[in-house]
């Protein structure tokens, strides 16, 4: 099946500062791709490139291409890109607490999307809003539509933000860490809702997260970013069974498991480097137990590994 969103060898800079280096990934209709990595890895910047929003932060694509449904975003006018956003590409923001206008009722904020992108009348837009809210398991949707944002819980606000993303009937949803500000129970509910949307509507979902547990729960494929480069990409099952890249293995090792021995859960030492101080060679080598002089000197190419790919000079063997 042809990819709906295809990011091919994309590099991004803001001013003279290079931030992303040769990122390639794709997602099809009916598929969930997890984009994972620590803060500063380039996840949100990749999403902004995919939505054509880089000019808003003074950024630009310096190499590669972003294609949506076969169309190159760089070849579109800003008006054409704006028509895609909200209509064919829905966006779920990272923090529902700040995503909603505090002086507008939440139903009005959902209504405006379908009125703008689908041309619905005021009454038809409100009927669609209430239907979407009911699908998102919001009780008494009609009454909630009349509420102000401050009257809703964090989980309810996130459902409203998802309804806004769905109101234009998009083909692709980009969700930027949609569960970060929520408690564990509500996180599970939101993840379940997003998974159901993909199954029931056949949309594509690009899910940005730092939580490998969420990736294991919902995603079909995963792309692991580190310091602006792609470390590993492939189907979730094989990667979790035998991660090729040491950074992927370290992220998986941070997931709590039932029955773990006390003190066996370890973090990753160090931190993602600043874009102004990326190390030479493999950017993970200062934190990597497998690093050799080659890693400190040369950039590892992204090479096929089973049904996925990884960029490491010392890949782990595939699972048998």
Descriptive notes:
This protein is of the alpha/beta class. Helix 4 packs across helix 5 and helix 4 runs parallel beside helix 7. The protein contains twelve helices and twelve strands. The radius of gyration is 20 Å and the shape is globular. Helices cover 34% and strands 22% of the residues.
Helix content: 25-40%
Strand order of the largest sheet: 6-7-8-3-9-10-12-11
Outline: globular
DSSP strand content:
15-25%
Name the structural class: alpha/beta
**Main sheet properties:** 8 strands, mixed
**Roughly how many Å apart are the termini?**
28 Å
Q: What's the oligomerization state?
A: single chain
Low-pLDDT parts are: none
**What's the alpha carbon Rg, rounded to whole Å?**
20 Å
The tally of beta strands, per DSSP, is 12
Précis, in short:
With 320 residues, the protein is an alpha/beta fold.
């Amino acid at each position: 099946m042809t990819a709906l969103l295809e990011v091919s060898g994309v590099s991004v800079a803001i001013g003279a500062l290079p931030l992303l280096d040769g990122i390639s990934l794709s997602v099809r209709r009916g598929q969930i791709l997890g984009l994972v990595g620590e803060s500063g890895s380039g996840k949100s910047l990749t999403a902004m490139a995919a939505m054509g929003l880089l000019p808003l932060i003074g950024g630009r694509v310096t190499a590669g291409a972003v294609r949506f449904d076969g169309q190159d975003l760089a070849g579109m006018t800003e008006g054409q890109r704006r028509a895609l956003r909200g209509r064919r590409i829905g966006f779920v923001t990272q923090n529902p607490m700040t995503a909603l206008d505090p002086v507008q009722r939440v139903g009005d904020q959902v209504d405006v999307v379908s009125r703008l992108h689908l041309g619905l009348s005021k009454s038809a837009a409100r009927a669609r809003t209430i239907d979407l809210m009911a699908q998102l398991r919001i009780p008494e949707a009609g009454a909630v539509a009349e509420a102000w944002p401050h009257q809703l819980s964090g989980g309810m606000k996130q459902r409203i933000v998802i309804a806004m993303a769905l109101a234009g009937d998009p083909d692709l949803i980009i969700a930027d860490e949609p569960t970060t500000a929520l408690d564990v129970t509500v996180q599970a509910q939101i993840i379940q809702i997003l998974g159901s949307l993909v199954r029931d509507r056949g949309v594509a979902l690009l899910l940005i997260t730092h939580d490998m547990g969420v990736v294991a729960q919902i995603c079909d494929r995963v792309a692991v970013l580190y310091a602006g480069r792609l470390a590993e990409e492939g189907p979730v099952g094989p990667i979790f069974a035998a991660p090729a890249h040491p950074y992927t293995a370290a992220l998986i090792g941070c997931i709590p498991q039932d029955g773990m021995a006390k003190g066996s859960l370890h973090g990753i030492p160090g931190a993602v480097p600043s874009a102004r101080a990326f190390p030479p060679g493999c950017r993970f080598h200062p934190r990597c137990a497998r690093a050799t002089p080659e890693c400190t000197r040369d950039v590892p190419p992204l090479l096929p590994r089973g049904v996925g790919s990884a960029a490491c000079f010392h890949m782990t063997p595939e699972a048998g």
